[in-house]
Amino acid sequence: MVIEDRKLRHAYVATKVAVFLAAAALTWPLSRTIGPKAWIGLGVFGFVLAVLTAAVVFGGTGAARAAARTGDAAVVDAEDLPPSPEVPVEIPVEDSIDLHPFPPREVPDVVDAYLEAAVEKGFAEVRLIHGRGIGVQRDRVQKLLARHPLVSGFHDAPPERGGWGATVVYLRRGI
Questions:
Q1: Do 53 and 103 reside in the same domain of the chain?
Q2: Is 87 within the bounds of a domain?
Q3: Cβ-Cβ contacts under 8 Å for 78 (sequence gap 6 or more)
Q4: What does the DSSP 8-state code read for residue 100?
Q5: CB atoms near residue 78 (< 10 Å)
Q6: The domain spanning residue 132 has which CATH number?
Q7: 47 within a domain of the structure (yes/no)
Q8: Could you tell me if 131 and 100 are in contact, meaning their C-beta atoms sit under 8 angstroms apart?
Q9: Has residue 86 been placed in a domain?
Q10: 15 and 26 Cβ atoms separated by less than 8 Å
Q11: Tens digits of residue pLDDT in 126-157
Q12: Total domain count for the chain?
C-alpha cells in the first residue's frame, strides 16, 4: 500500500507519531520500575513503527517496488494492483460449485448467477462449497441464501458431502 494523497499521507504519519507518543507516555511509569530496559523496548518499537511508516509513505521496499514493476504476483498484494477489465467467464453448471477460486468480493454475484443457472437447468438441489475456515464465507453465503427468491431452504452439508464447509441448497421450481 502506498499513500498517494498528500493529506492522507500526513494524517497517516500523524497517527503513527501519536501512537509512538502514547507508547512513550505508557512506558514512563514502567521505566521507574523496570529501568532502562523499558526504554530499549520503546526504542525498538519506535524503529519498527518508523520503518513501516516510511514503507507506506515512500512506496514500500525496493523489492516491493521492483515486484510491482515486473508484476510478480508472489510479492505484490492483489489489492494494490489496478482492477482488471471485467471479462465474463463461462462456468459449467453442475450440481455443485466450488467458491474457492473466486475472490471473496465476487462470491455473492457468483452465487446469484449460479443459482439462476441451476434453476434454468432444472436442478432441485445444489451444493455450494465455501470451505470451513473460520466461517466468514459460510455466513456470507448463508445470509445471501436466506433472502434469495430462488431458494426454498438450505442447511450445512452432511459430513460425507463437505460438512460445514459446504451448504446444500433447495431451489424453488416454477418461478
A1: no
A2: no
A3: 103
A4: T
A5: 8
A6: 3.30.1370.110
A7: yes
A8: yes
A9: no
A10: no
A11: 999 998 888 889 999 999 999 999 999 999 99
A12: 2
One domain, residues 70 and 115: no
Question: What's the chain's Rg over C-alpha atoms?
Answer: 25
* Segment 79-132, tens digit of pLDDT: 555 565 666 666 678 889 999 888 888 899 999 999 999 999 999 999 999 988
Cell numbers describing residue 31: 521505566
Q: In terms of residue numbers, what domain contains 122?
A: 96-171
The CA–CA distances, whole Å, from 5 to 12, 79, 123, 129 equal 10, 17, 50, 40
Residues pairing with 78 in the sheet = none
The type of residue at 48 is V
d(CA 129, CA 112): 14
Cell of 134: 473460520
- Max Cα distance, the chain (Å): 76
C-alpha cell belonging to residue 69: 514493476
- Encode burial over 38-50: b for 16+ CB neighbours within 10 A, e otherwise: beeebeeebeeee
